[in-house]
Design brief:
Length: 150
């Protein structure tokens, strides 16, 4: 897992061509980006969405096997709870069509994504996004970048 401010994005360049493509994208994306799904070079997929953060994420933690995710709010902030995959209990088995397995909700590291901070989670990182910061629901506009790791 990598959690850092966008001003430090250069520290993470050179890991893989796909991660470089993803980092270049989030370094330039603005709040004016259109909602939708976009495909970039190196198999990178971008999903832009808007929603209101939740007090509880009924789905719990999630983890992926074929993709790493960059979570980046271009407007608003959300809490993303993270925990090593080895420390969570599977609640819904892996679905290869959706590249996701679900895990029970439990305490983890609470990270505030927004205001220039991004989160890069790998397949060994369970993460629970979309949560309200400080228990106050608020709108966000979020960029999720799916980076192939296979």
């Amino acid at each position: 897992m990598i959690f850092d401010h966008i001003k430090n994005i250069g520290l993470y360049k050179g890991l893989t061509p796909a991660i470089d493509t993803a980092l270049d994208y989030i370094a330039k994306v603005t709040p004016e980006v259109e909602i939708g799904t976009y495909f970039l070079d190196n198999g990178v997929k971008v999903v832009i969405s808007e929603y209101t953060t939740r007090l509880v994420n009924e789905k719990g933690y999630e983890a992926h096997r074929r993709f790493a995710d960059i979570q980046f709010c271009v407007a608003g902030t959300e809490l993303v709870r993270c925990k090593p995959l080895a420390q969570v209990e599977e609640s819904i088995p892996y679905n290869p069509d959706k590249d996701v397995a679900r895990y029970t909700d439990c305490p983890g590291a609470d990270l505030i994504v927004g205001e220039g901070y991004f989160l890069l989670v790998f397949p060994e990182d369970a993460h629970e996004p979309c949560l309200a910061v400080g228990g106050v629901q608020a709108p966000v506009k979020k960029v999720v970048v799916k980076i192939p790791v296979e």
